[in-house]
Specification:
alpha/beta, Purple Acid Phosphatase, chain A, domain 2, endopeptidase fold (from Nostoc punctiforme), nine-stranded mixed β-sheet, six-stranded mixed β-sheet, 12 helices, 27 strands, 22% helix, disordered N terminus
């Protein structure tokens, strides 16, 4: 149904681990056994109530323009539909205070299919904005568009889709009238367990938790908002995973929340607003609009993931955010709320398991008496991270990540782990502790003279990968051949230009 060709918490003392975009595209060539599942938060494509004047510009045709390539590039894509599809009519709901009504023209469903959506949740407080007529028409429109949907009690509680030989089970929960209740955890477990008996992968969605900027933390307790029980999202997510769920996508607070890995399954507690073209507050963190892409094996076990950061600044849909604000916020909240989780999230949004990064052969490359276990772990992570850039081209003065010079590469790598080591060879060699060649360890910097061998000035730098104490020092660096791995003892060029090694791990800012 879709092409699959785009792959992609802290460690000791809150260290970061990230992948480069190039490395993910390279990995996709070999990770053909992985399943990619993309999810987004709340979708409201404009409203024709009380009049068409509230519809977006260009009749909404460009709302999902900036995100469609990413959404299409997953095996299966999920979103939460806030509101109903209905050209006119229906019975507007009544509220104790101000009401918000979302009624989208039927034809807007084509924007969802064109953008690559497969699974739609209708379990939320706005699916009933226009009564039974609105709900019935919404399901009809989704069904005729070929979209899978779920979330209404006794009507469409689950959905099953088969794509490329994989059966996906899908169910959605919310605290609202007519929906499958997030508060009825025992029933949720029964539904999920039944789905798992029929399907390879089970995806669960929930619309829950208190709303707004002040409610961006996962409390692990029952949350209420305006007197309504919005569920204990932590208890709910763990329960459905225990029952067989493989990925849990949360939404409802209108801001992003933390992610967690539980029993090898991925949970994102809120993906916030995504494409909400009217009446939604989208200033500041309310405008963060991530796409969360999860890669699992065929049994649903989490392998890796990526958070693509988008922003809503107006009523024109999500737009690419080069500052990665959504990813950084999810990373920050994950570190605060789930310090025990096995997830590492980088500022760029790449997600990896800590336990997959630590080398099993530390003892072959480290002198355990010279550095404590915390720093061993850090150095191994630095090396694993640096290897993701193999093949990236050299460009003088470039600091990455699409190209590097030598010092740009080392400063970029260490900078992502919180180490400030300067931007040039001349500044980097003045930091840290000098070490002899036979004492070089994984993660040390290694310095060389420049191409003019008559000069004693430092002109090149790399990062030590390993040292077997017999002169076989492997190092990774950016040179005219790009980012590569060389061995000191086997390179007459670098052997003749070797100056010194430097240990910098105590210079973390």
């Amino acid at each position: 149904m879709k092409d699959f060709n785009f792959i992609i918490k802290t460690s000791i003392i809150s260290v970061l681990f990230v992948y480069s975009i190039c490395s993910f595209s390279q990995e996709s060539q070999i990770d053909t056994n992985l399943i990619s599942i993309a999810g987004t938060g709340d979708i409201m494509l404009g409203s024709n109530y009380p009049s068409d004047a509230r519809l977006p510009i260009n009749d909404g045709r460009e709302l999902l323009r900036d995100v469609k390539d990413i959404l299409k590039d997953a095996d299966i894509t999920f979103g939460n539909l806030e509101g109903c599809f209905l050209n006119s009519g229906g019975s507007p709901k009544s509220c104790k205070s101000k009401c918000y009504y979302f009624r989208m023209p039927d034809k807007y469903v084509n924007y969802l299919t064109d953008a690559g959506y497969d699974l739609i949740s209708v379990a939320n407080n706005h699916s009933g904005d226009f009564g039974a007529i609105g709900r019935e028409n919404t399901l009809k429109v989704l069904r005729e568009a070929g979209l899978n949907y779920a979330g209404l009690e006794g009507i469409c509680e689950t959905s099953v889709a088969e794509i490329n030989g994989i059966k996906y089970g899908f169910c959605c929960f919310a605290p609202n009238s007519g929906t499958l209740k997030i508060t009825n955890i025992s029933n949720a477990k029964k539904i999920v367990s039944q789905l798992k008996s029929e399907c390879n992968i089970v995806i669960v969605s929930f619309h829950g938790g208190a709303e707004g900027k002040a409610n961006n933390r996962v409390t692990r307790k029952t949350e209420t908002f305006y007197g309504e029980n919005r569920g204990n999202v932590y208890e709910f997510a763990h329960a459905v995973i225990d029952a067989g769920a493989d990925v849990v996508f949360g939404h409802g607070p209108h801001v992003v929340r933390a992610a967690e890995l539980y029993n090898d399954r991925f949970i994102i507690y809120s993906m916030g607003n995504f494409c909400t073209a009217g009446e939604f507050e989208i200033s500041g963190i309310n405008g963060y609009a991530p796409v969360v892409k999860v890669f699992t094996d065929k049994d649903g076990k989490f392998v890796k993931g990526q958070i693509f950061s988008f922003l809503q600044k107006d009523k024109t849909g999500p737009h690419t955010d080069k500052d990665n604000a959504a990813a950084k916020e999810i990373k920050r909240l994950t570190e605060l709320d789930f310090p025990e989780t096995d997830l590492l999230i980088s500022n760029e949004g790449f997600i990896q398991r800590k336990s997959n990064i630590i080398s099993e052969n530390i003892e072959n490359t480290q002198d355990s008496s010279a550095v404590n276990n915390d720093n061993i772990s850090v150095m191994q992570r630095i090396i694993e991270f640096s290897k993701q850039f193999l093949g990236i081209p050299y460009h003088r003065g470039s600091k990455g990540p699409k190209s590097f010079d030598c010092s740009g590469f080392t400063s970029f790598v260490f900078g992502n782990f919180g180490y400030q080591i300067g931007a040039s060879c001349l500044t980097q060699i003045q930091q840290g502790m000098k070490v002899m060649q036979d004492e070089l360890q994984t993660g040390d910097l290694i310095f060389f003279k420049g191409r003019n061998n008559k000069s004693n000035n430092v002109g090149h730098v790399g990062i030590v990968i390993s040292n077997d104490k017999n002169g076989n020092v492997q190092f990774i660096h950016s040179c005219l051949r790009g980012v590569i791995i060389d061995e000191l003892n086997k390179s007459s060029y670098y052997k003749s230009r070797y100056i010194m090694g430097l240990r910098i791990f105590n210079n973390k800012s």
